[in-house]
Amino acid sequence: MDSRQTVKILLLGGTSEARSLAADVADDPLLDVVSSLAGRVHDPQLPAGATRVGGFGGATGLTQWLERECVDVVVDATHPFATSISSNAHQASRATGTPLVRLVRPAWTPSTEDRWVRVRSVSQAAETVERLSRRSFLTIGRQNVGAFAWIERTWFLVRSIDPPTGALPPHHEVLLARGPFAEADEIELMKAHRIDTMVTKNSGGAMTDAKLAAARRLGVPVVMIDRPREAGADFCAGTVGAVVDWLRAHAHVRGNDAR
Ligand code: NAP
């Protein structure tokens, strides 16, 4: 007799890892996944399977959603800098007793050839750029560009998928582009714009790490914004495979418990 039982999963996404996870379990009859996107990106890459879009209404709204939809497991595969949704997921999981799994890609680490200036926040990154840079490559997504708007003596190449929100620095050019990017192209881009400093969040992952290799090759310093503290989870992994294994094992355990 089969001891497994279908597990209803809310997959908080908006990352390539979340899309890989949704694709990997799309045909698994025991894992019933609903992916959730914030709805920020104009033309999002949609995951395989069922998808919902938009906020839940804070931790309270998410708690109610988990109860209403009879969710068995929450997988938080959001970006390492998406702290509000991760905190809400943590609170809602505690309030409902729903297990929380965190899928977070490993952070980038510097090699001996890298020239990183590590900072703890976007505002610290802005202060550092103002001190060090005259031509800066800003690759932090579209949401926090306003933190650099006060800087008058630096020219910025601002790259994001959708147009940046909020105020922009007086001297800038916006480049709309979606990764992955190739190292050779990143080198050409930085050379063409005579970039002397690059700013990035420590997002980790292979989709956008070519810019780090390019900066290393060109000897360009990188202002690296360190990750915020994690909210905590019942199981945390850096790979999609480890999370899929955990979910399948959970389906077995629930099946055994139900017998
Ligand atoms: P955030 O500050 O943590 O979230 C702000 C609010 O957006 C949340 O309180 C929630 O609204 C809603 N939200 C966020 N992610 C959601 C999801 N997956 N499903 C439903 N609602 C969601 O997040 P953010 O930094 O704005 O990022 C938004 C999304 O973009 C995330 O899903 C993240 O994975 C993705 N992303 C972020 C970055 C980044 O650098 N921050 C980079 C790449 C991708 P309610 O409180 O109303 O529920």
Chart the SSEs and their pairings.
Elements: E1 7-12, H1 16-25, E2 31-37, E3 50-53, H2 58-68, E4 73-76, H3 83-96, E5 100-103, E6 116-119, H4 122-132, E7 135-139, E8 155-160, E9 172-176, H5 183-192, E10 197-201, H6 210-218, E11 222-225, E12 235-237, H7 240-258
Parallel strand pairs: 1-2, 1-4, 2-3, 4-5, 5-12, 6-11, 7-8, 7-10, 8-9, 10-11
Helix pairs in contact: 1-7, 2-3, 5-6
The structure holds NADP nicotinamide-adenine-dinucleotide phosphate.
Structural features, described:
By secondary structure, the chain is of the alpha/beta class. The protein contains seven helices and twelve strands. It has two domains: 3-105 and 229-258, Rossmann fold (3-Layer(aba) Sandwich); 116-225, Rossmann fold. The strands form two sheets. Strands 3-2-1-4-5-12 form a six-stranded parallel β-sheet, sandwiched between helices. Strands 6-11-10-7-8-9 form a six-stranded parallel β-sheet, with helices on one face. Helix 1 (16-25) crosses helix 7 and helix 2 crosses helix 3. The model has no long low-confidence stretch (mean pLDDT 95). Residues 12-15, 36-38, 40, 55-58, 61-62, 78-79, 81-85, 88, 141, 201 line the site of NADP nicotinamide-adenine-dinucleotide phosphate.
